[in-house]
Amino acid sequence: MSLKITEDCINCDVCEPECPNGAISQGEEIYVIDPNLCTECVGHYDEPQCQQVCPVDCIPLDTENVESKEKLHEKYLRISGQA
Questions:
Q1: What digits encode the pLDDT tens for the residues 6-32?
Q2: Alpha-carbon gap, residue 9 to 71, rounded angstroms
Q3: Has UniProt tagged this entry with the keyword Iron (predicted)?
Q4: Fewest beta carbons less than 10 Å away: which of 13, 21, 24, 52?
């Protein structure tokens, strides 16, 4: 699965620079995560970095974008130009 940012986001700006895939950007009101770029940090880190730094714990799994660890790894390989 990719991750998503909920309405609890306080726009603190700490998650965006932590994303190794550039999946996080400022939306109209809060930060958003592009599910086409989010790999839950698979290929980079053991844990999603945005979740680790979020002070309000507003970045859950996105149940609308279900992907296995294998699919996330394949996406990482495509994004990083290794596939």
A1: 999 999 999 999 999 999 999 999 999
A2: 27
A3: yes
A4: 13
